[in-house]
Design goal:
Blueprint: H1 10-25, H2 35-42, H3 46-49, H4 56-80, H5 85-102, H6 105-115, H7 121-146, H8 156-177, H9 183-198
Helix pairs in contact: 1-2, 1-4, 1-6, 4-5, 4-7, 5-7, 5-9, 6-7, 7-8, 8-9
Length: 202
């Protein structure tokens, strides 16, 4: 059980709960995380936990909201600081990889929600995140085509799918190997191959 302050403002307590879920997801199957485990990780009783979240689903919804906001904010900031569309794509790729390396429980949660039966709110939130991410990629790729950086005949839809799929592939391999931190080492070479496939011929 972690030693944490027992009395925190509501927003800090909610943020601490989300962090506990993300941390637990890095250690076990997210589908098997119980409210008891979350409370234990925070040094609370379940009663104290439920004063801030009415249900376990509410905790999951807050966690998915945190993931979406943090990931999109991170890639937006990275892209905004880049000198060109291709540089922005690379910055997004590396920032996403860094986010996963820092929060290895996140991809487990996203994959888990997408595989859940039914049309749950957390599942819809993940689907919305993917759509919003895809839109950002397409805008950058269209800009790259317009500026002559990317192949004029590039299929933007397919290229965006491959971008996300490449990250997912790296994540899956690192999870299978049990060495998520190593994802940073593989990322630059993998992106270089991806980049050669979408760039305009010199």
């Amino acid at each position: 059980m972690n030693e944490r302050p027992q009395y925190l403002p509501a927003e800090e307590r909610r943020a601490a709960t989300v962090q506990a879920v993300v941390d637990l997801a890095a250690e076990q199957n997210p589908a098997e995380i119980t409210t008891t485990a979350i409370a234990d990780r925070m040094g609370l009783t379940q009663g104290a936990l439920f004063r801030h979240f009415r249900t376990k689903d509410a905790i999951l919804e807050a966690t998915m909201s945190w993931v979406s906001e943090r990931l999109l904010l991170s890639v937006d900031k990275a892209a905004a600081g880049a000198a060109s569309p291709v540089a922005a794509l690379e910055a997004m790729f590396m920032t996403h990889i860094d986010f996963v390396a820092k929060h290895p429980g996140v991809p487990r949660m996203l994959f888990g929600e997408l595989q859940r039966a039914g049309n749950t709110l957390p599942k819809r939130m993940v689907q919305t995140l993917i759509r919003q991410y895809d839109q950002r990629l397409r805008r950058l790729m269209e800009a790259g085509k317009a500026q002559g950086e990317l192949d004029a005949e590039l299929d933007v839809e397919a290229a965006a799918v491959l971008f996300i799929g490449t990250i997912q592939g790296l994540v899956m391999q690192s999870l299978l190997a049990g060495k998520v931190s190593q994802i940073r080492r593989a990322a630059p070479a993998v992106f270089a191959i991806y980049r050669r496939g979408i760039e305009a011929a010199s």
